Amino acid sequence: MGELCNLIKQYDEMVHKNPDMATEEQRLRIEKFRVEIEKVKGNKETTSNTAQMRGLM
User: Fold this and answer.
1) How many structural domains comprise the chain?
2) What is the pTM for the complete model shown?
3) Which terminal residue of the chain has fewer beta carbons within 10 Å of its beta carbon, N or C?
4) What is the pLDDT of residues 8-20, one digit of tens each?
């Protein structure tokens, strides 16, 4: 538990010393999530369209 608290404290200090770094990391994570969401949506649409073409839906 103590190690976890130390890691959180280190992260907090790092963010406060260089806020641009955390912001860039957050932007990259958001972009990654967007890409993953689009892939999932694309797969669902493709599956849905294929099922409709086969008369399954």
Assistant:
1) 1
2) 0.44
3) N
4) 888 778 877 876 7
CA dist 8 and 4 (Å) reads 6
Residue 7's pLDDT band (boundaries 50, 70, 90)? confident
Q: Is residue 29 part of a domain?
A: yes
Residue 57 in any domain: the answer is yes
Residue numbers of the domain that contains 30: 19-57
What is the Cα–Cα distance from 10 to 29, expressed in whole angstroms? 20
Is 37:31 a contact under the CB 8 Å cutoff? no
Residue 6 lies in a domain: no
Crossing angle of helices 19-53 and 2-17, rounded to 10°: 100
Q: For residue 3, what are its two tokens?
A: 């190690």
